[in-house]
Amino acid sequence: MPKDLKSIKNNKNDFNKSLKNYAKYSGIAFQMAAVIFLGTWGGYKADEYFGFESHVLTLILSILSVILAIYYAVKDFLKK
Length: 80
Known about the structure:
With 80 residues, the protein is an all-alpha fold.
């Protein structure tokens, strides 16, 4: 195989690998955003339901959702 064809195949493989990594990490970012949004929204609705004016459940659930999102992201990063 000529030298130029080998470099074209290597470039194509590098491009496919980088595209796969981009899709993986952007998916993790969207997953984190969804978990944080749902946790915060759930806390807000719980505060409305129970009639809390201090938004304590919004604060608690938003912090827990950030911790959960980080846990899932680290778990996905460590997975090979």
